[in-house]
Design goal:
The chain is mainly α. The protein has ten helices and no strands.
Length: about 260
Amino acid sequence: MNKRFRDAKRYEKTICAAIAIFLFLCLWQLVVSFTKAGIVMAGPVTVLDKFVSSIVEPIGTNTIQSHIFWSLTRVMIGFILGSLAGIITGILMGWSKPIEALFRPLYELIRPIPPIAWIPLSIVWFGLGEPSKYFLIFLAAFSNITMNAYAGVRSVDPTLMGAARMLGANDRQVFSTIVLPSCIPHIFAGLQIAVGSAWATVVAAEMVRSSEGVGWVIIKGQDSNSTVQIMVGIMAVGIVGYILAVAMRAIEAKLCSWSVRGK
């Protein structure tokens, strides 16, 4: 019965999402057809047609799926490195008061700074190649995941840890059996936020200096005054960002089935 109910709710959400997208496309088409916005904005039919044709006909030297692949490759490298560093840093700050006292003030200084603000310095430090993009994506992932991992450790019930120590558990056993499992849902919440932030950051980085990627598609559309190409790039950003979010939620549902958010 519960499975049937969950399946029905899932289908209901899917149908509602499809209706919302359809209504948005209809509204978009009406706006460009019956207002002056059509002078500066392409309609959804034109954009969708260009998006589909760009799968075969290259934009620049690459098809749209190749541009997406380049961007995703950059995101995954920076995201994995930032996630690992953020998880380790956050857990250590939450577990050890000396480490928290040492690193948290520095982290709180860096956290409010948006990754794109680091673009000028990243170019100075790493040049115009790939390392500067990895650095920006690293910062986007690191900032979000560190705080969630830290919050996960700090949210563990002290009573549970005290009871485990009374039963003879040492610090390593308390950490591995109580603290770490308890903070995993928080870490996944941070990962989901971080992957979206990393995807947005790579688009901004590619708009500064790149020869491929969805950010390049958008900025070259601006250079050639092609609103259709700009909208194709924006559509690619939205579609891939949505897929990444859904994929992260699916992974969370598999690995954290006892504590899935948004059931």
